[in-house]
Amino acid sequence: LMRHRIIVGSIILVTVLLAGNAAAEPIFRLDTPEDGATVFGLVSVTGYVLDDGADCGPRWTWQNCDWGPTLVNKVELYVDGGYIATADLHHPRYDVFQAYPWYAGTPFEDPGFATSFDSTALSDGSHTLFVRVSFADGTEADFGERTVTVDNNLNQAPFGEIELPGENQP
User: Fold this and answer.
1) Distances (CA, A) of 2 to 5, 7, 8, 9
2) How far apart are CA 149 and CA 38, in angstroms?
3) How confident is the model at residue 70 (pLDDT cuts 50, 70, 90)?
4) What pLDDT does 103 receive?
5) What are the Cα distances from residue 47, in Å, to 59, 63, 67, 88, 156?
6) CA atoms of 67 and 54, how far apart (whole Å)
7) Contact, 35 vs 147, CB < 8 A?
8) Which of 30, 61, 63, 141 has the most CB within a 10 Å radius?
9) What pTM was estimated for this model as a whole?
10) For the purposes of burial, counting CB atoms within 10 Å of the CB of 164, is it exposed (0-12), middle (13-18) or buried (19 or more)?
11) Which residues contact 130 (CB under 8 A, 6 or more apart)?
């Protein structure tokens, strides 16, 4: 029984180690909006994209690798199949950096992106959105498809304050 556990444990360990070094798809996540969310006004679209590092060998050699040109050229937002906006790239994501610390010192140290769309330009009801990532090698891939419900009857509450004149100032 003990030998069986050691063998099974060794097989699992080797599988995990090999899978960690195998070529894979980019790691992508669309954080906002959530699938099925009801949205209104200016809608934030955020997430991150990481390269699989297959061209740079094992993770422990990535800091010394010549990554070449920017691997992600652009991230574009599409709603109902139509282009809406190009996202800002290279946002720091400390949560991602903690989850994937081996990206330290690589071009993917700041993998976040952010953009938005104005839902008032859309009709009330169900709409689909996705993000198209364009890579340096000329390929493109669509990620994060989800459906959101636009409800233009909802409205963001106004916010702000009067700074000058202050209380009891002439």
Assistant:
1) 5, 9, 10, 10
2) 5
3) low
4) 84
5) 23, 24, 22, 11, 23
6) 11
7) yes
8) 30
9) 0.73
10) exposed
11) 78, 142, 143, 144, 145, 146
